[in-house]
Task: inverse folding
């Protein structure tokens, strides 16, 4: 791959899910070390949060770690480390309603670092919460496809994290 200059686009990937949960529980999963570690990252990966400073301008620093043998092999074949540090900044925080995070994407071989923003909004609907995620497409079509697949995958982990929180585990 050539060394491209990444230019964030305004095009968005939109994901929407409904959960039988309290908005406070979803908020917890997005805004605490324990919650974030319980579900963040696609299947086959886990995260270890080093810093989560929940205020506008605050840092979110974590390692994304491949743990599944299939993912480890994929990362090696793609000349990517099986663990990489990730840095993000909280851009907007409206408690229990909206959260925006800007990630620094600096781990893709052949691409210069760039920012990628994700906004999540929570809409209580009776006993359910509708969660809407809008995240910027990546400047590279392949990485937009990978990121979309990654979001779809990691969102499959959220119900178990909610159940564990509800049961107090």
Result:
């Amino acid at each position: 791959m050539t060394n491209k200059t990444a230019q964030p686009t305004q095009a968005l990937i939109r994901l929407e899910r409904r959960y039988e949960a309290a908005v406070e529980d979803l908020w917890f999963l997005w805004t605490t070390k324990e919650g974030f570690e319980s579900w963040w990252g696609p299947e086959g990966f886990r995260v270890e949060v080093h810093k989560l400073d929940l205020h506008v301008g605050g840092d979110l620093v974590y390692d994304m770690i491949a743990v599944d043998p299939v993912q480890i092999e994929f990362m090696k074949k793609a000349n990517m480390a099986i663990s990489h540090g990730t840095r993000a900044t909280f851009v907007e925080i409206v408690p229990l309603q909206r959260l925006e995070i800007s990630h620094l994407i600096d781990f893709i071989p052949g691409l210069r670092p760039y920012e990628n923003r994700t906004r999540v909004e929570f809409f209580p609907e009776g006993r359910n919460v509708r969660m809407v995620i809008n995240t910027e497409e990546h400047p590279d079509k392949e990485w937009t496809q990978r990121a979309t697949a990654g979001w779809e995958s990691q969102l499959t982990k959220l119900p178990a994290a909610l159940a564990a929180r509800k049961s107090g585990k």
